[in-house]
Amino acid sequence: MKLSYRTMFYPLGVIGISLDIDSRILECVDSALGKLGENVRQSIYYYLKKDFMLEKFEIPRKPEVFERALISIFGKEGCKVIEKMILVEIRKNFRLKRVLSFKKAIKVLSDAGTCSKKQLLNK
Questions:
Q1: Domain range for residue 103?
Q2: Is 75 left (phi over 0), alpha (psi -120 to 50) or beta?
Q3: Which CATH number do you get for residue 52?
Q4: Per-residue pLDDT reduced to its tens digit, 15-55
Q5: By three-state DSSP, how is residue 119 classified?
Q6: 94: which DSSP letter?
Q7: How many other C-beta atoms are found inside a 10 Å radius of the C-beta of residue 74?
Q8: How many domains does the chain contain in total?
Q9: Fewer Cβ in 10 A, N or C end of the chain?
Q10: pLDDT, tens digit, for every residue of 55-103?
Q11: How far is the CA of 4 from the CAs of 7, 14, 73, 115, in angstroms?
Q12: CB under 8 Å to 118, separation ≥6 — which residues?
């Protein structure tokens, strides 16, 4: 979807798209973390909230904080493994091709509002 004069001055359409993308990203994160087990997933969300003041719904908007938290919990190598698990889900859910990191995936998906579907799939 391209941003037009109408969407710039009627931001509910853009907000709706953004919230939809955010919720789909959260589904991907939730699914990937769920592969570690329900208790682990809930513990991660608890730790994010308690020590990083990061609510679950904020993950797509604050990927840097999310990454720092994962490094704090699992170390750099553990973070890379979890990031790869999340990226597998994102690629599947959004049909993205080459995305190298969670932060880049978020950027590509956030830019989706300003480029066509074909451009998004080829990034």
A1: 5-122
A2: left
A3: 1.10.1200.200
A4: 445 668 889 999 999 999 999 999 999 999 999 999 999 99
A5: helix
A6: H
A7: 15
A8: 1
A9: N
A10: 999 999 999 999 999 999 999 999 999 999 999 999 998 888 777 788 8
A11: 5, 10, 42, 11
A12: none
